[in-house]
Amino acid sequence: MSVVFDEKINRARGDGRLQLAIYDATARLMDKRKHALEGDNLPDFQELRDCANALKKQTIDNLDHYLEQFEANVIAHAGKVVFCKDATDVSDFILKLAKERGARLIVKSKSMTTEEIDLNERLEHHNLEAVETDLGEYIIQLAHERPYHIVAPAMHKTRYQVADLFEEKLGVPNETVIEKQTMIARGVLREKFLAADIGISGANFLIADSGAVVLVENEGNARLSTSAPKIHIAVAGIEKLIPRAQDLAVFLKLLGRSATGQPLTVYTSFLSGPRRGEEIDGPGEFYVVLLDNGRTKLLEDSGKRESLYCIRCGACLNHCPVYRKIGGHSFPWVYSGPIGAIITPQFMGLNHEPGLPFASSLCGACAEVCPVKIDIPRVLLELRADVTAAKEREGQGGLERMAFRAYAWLMRHPKLFEIAGRLASVLAPASSSGWLRGVPAIMNIPPVRAWLSQRDLPAPPHQSFRQQWRTRVPRINSR
Amino acid sequence: MAKRVSLFVSCIVDQVFPNVGLAMADVLERAGFDVGFPEAQTCCGQPAFNSGYREEARQVALHFLDVFSKSENVVVPSGSCTAMITHHFAELFSNDQLNLARVHALESRVYEFSRFLLDVAKVEDVGARLDDVVTYHDSCHALRELKIKQGPRRLLSHVRGLELREMDAAEECCGFGGTFSVKFAEVSGGMARTKIDSIVRTGARTVVSIDSSCLMQIQGAISRAGLSVRTLHLAEVLASR
Question: Are residues B84 and B143 both part of a single domain?
Answer without folding.
Answer: no
